[in-house]
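Box 3.1 A note on notation
Throughout this textbook, protein chains are presented in two layers. The first layer is the amino acid sequence; the second is a token string describing backbone geometry. Keep the layers aligned when reading.
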Amino acid sequence: MSESNLLGTAVVRPARPGEYARVGELTVEVYVRGGLVSAESTYVRMLADAADRAAKAELLVAEVGGEIAGAVAYCPPDSPYAELAGPDEAEFRMLAVLERARGTGVGRALVQACVQRAREAGLAALRLSTQSNMHTAHRMYERMGFTRTPERDWSPVPGLGLMTYELVLRPS
């Protein structure tokens, strides 16, 4: 993606089947290069399998200047990818924005698309898990109205603690 392509507005839309491989590569690139996961981790296989996310959740991409700059999995209540959400809640996972697209609104646009889907579904809340070192992401979530839910923090594998946030969409 060239720098000039980053000047456009992010268009968020469902990923197309022909894009699944690229979305998987992008997600692995962001997580491994960003130090969020080791290249040897078994989680890399899940990050790379965008087709499975598209089949079991809603795989969204942010396109800028005709190129994919980021992706996220929106997980409605019935999605097997929903690890944290309750029955009247959704969550999003595997938010990935290319390093050169950060600070351009791509991440915010992807999160906003998840918020919109959860609101349209009439759900009570939207939830997410995040690593403690993702300070820029935490600030974005908080600016968007998400609040910390430390009582729901969890550890999917030994040595990896995840912080949680929620956006209340309607009183439960």
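Confidence is low (pLDDT under 50) at residues 1-5. The chain has five helices and eight strands.
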